[in-house]
Amino acid sequence: MDASPAPTPPVPPPGRFALFRRRLDFLYHADHPSAVRFQGWVAIVDLVIIAFFVMAPVLQEKRYFLWLDYSLAALLALDFGARALAAPNLKVWARRPVIWVDALILMTLLLPSLFFNLGFLRILRLWTLSRKDVLWRSLRRRGWQKWEEAGRAMINLLTCLFLATGFIYTAFVREGSGIEGYIDALYFTVATMTTTGFGDVTLPGPGGKLTSVVVMIVGISLFVRLAQTVFRPYKVFFPCPACALERHEPDAVHCKACGHILAIPDDGNA
């Protein structure tokens, strides 16, 4: 007589911690309307925090500055921990460059006296925000995909602008340097990036000249990239009928993923 297979033991229900992680995963990564609303509010809070980072050099002498600094540190630490719990694979999540940048920003907030000279790196939060899909999802739904690349290029330009301004303010502001405040640092950065070069504000010494060269090269590259993205996109959005790959070169005849023949309109709009 054949032995009947042993009954499969019942799977125990997930515990509260597992359910909590599933909920966080849903809120941070799902495309459900409630999750999208949550992600939108997180993005709005991020924009407020970024505005504080931009204004930090002006506000740092105020008595309430450290209170705001530590409050934002607690808020970002809470968001950082929640994203870690929401990650399906913590090791893969921790290897992402965006996470390293966010960790560095958090350290400058938690230890402002120790990392004061690196405070200008906080503006990189704008770049990490641009990596979130929630900013671009509504453009895709409205068929405005071509503006996503332009938006990313603009954010990269602004990030570089304020990053350079913060570095110049931190490294060169002193009496007799020609850079006496944050506005002077911002003015010099814009004039250098655009190669206007009025010459009324300059950075002293060899270090100042090398900094100016770097800012000019990076600025020109980003401005050219932004103009190219707006007026002549490097890639256009045209879904392949066979494999659904969306981004192709404007003059592509075949899909580079599956080889399917494409029929991209001359103006590059799908």
TrEMBL record:
GO terms for cellular component: voltage-gated potassium channel complex. The keyword Transport applies. Pfam families: Ion_trans_2. The chain crosses the membrane at residues 38-59, 66-86, 98-121, 150-172, 210-227. Keywords: Ion channel, Ion transport, Membrane, Transmembrane, Transmembrane helix, Transport. Residues 158-231 form the Potassium channel domain. It is found in: Membrane. One of its GO terms (molecular function) is voltage-gated potassium channel activity. Its main location: membrane. It is a multi-pass membrane protein. GO terms for biological process: action potential. SUPFAM superfamilies: Voltage-gated potassium channels. This is Ion transporter.
